[in-house]
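Data deposition worksheet. Section B asks for the primary sequence of the deposited chain exactly as it was used as input, without tags or linkers unless they were present during the calculation. Section C holds the resulting structure in token form. Section D is free text for depositor observations; keep each observation to a single sentence. Incomplete worksheets are returned to the depositor.
Section A, Depositor: J.P.
Section B:
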Amino acid sequence: MQNQEILINYLNELNINYEIKTLKDITKLIKAHLRTFSFSSLRVLLKEEISLDLNNIYENIVLKKRGGYCFEHNKLMYEVLKELGFDVTHYLARVINNTQNIPAQTHRFTLLDFQGEKYLIDVGIGFRTPSVPIKLGNTSSVSHLGVEYKIVELEDKICSMQLMQKGKPFNATKFDLNKCYESDFEIGNFYSYKNPNAVFVNNFVISLIEEDVIHSLVNEKYFKINKQGTKEIEIRSCEQLEELLKNDLNSKFTANEIAFFHKNYIKA
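Section C:
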């Protein structure tokens, strides 16, 4: 399938029937993507091959609704924006989660150059994913649930995507803007789904972001996050897990796959 056909089908899936020309249009696109397609490690846990071929990404995320992680979601968004005619580049980052750790560069994101300004676009960092482009230059951008994001400089040419969490700054990722190639993403992706110590190899992680609620399921803990606070819901059965995956997280997995998840990652 050609990129133009993927673009048309992708936009149809999101019910977007208008031209995407402005930053506001791109924000609408991001929000539609996040409320439709889940961020997920589930295919990693099933030992599936995680291909970065665009057709495979499109098939798994858009058609089959089986989710994906940063290398898949952000490549799809990058290719969509590129096909729409926007000036985009792609980079790697380290997921530091507000620590001083220096993990491998196993996170992909997109940089948009629009009307003389640069914006970070990231639709693949789980429940902390911003639903708006974040302007570079230490300027706050307000995302879903009123959460503020900004890009801050930590040291010489090293930046962080920072959000306010419980009233305090939280540095989610750390990155520079050294040029990256598809081969770099292939290496990061291979580590993420093959290395025995990788987060996604060892944890059941899935989330979906709507404008007024974040759905986040990590191993046995399911959270619904909104402006009023966080509600934790106990998962008591395979049937309940199946309902959550289908209705709250818009994901499609077989009964056998769900039983495997429940037995190995959910059941106490």
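Section D:
The mean pLDDT is 96.
The chain has one domain: 3-195+203-266.
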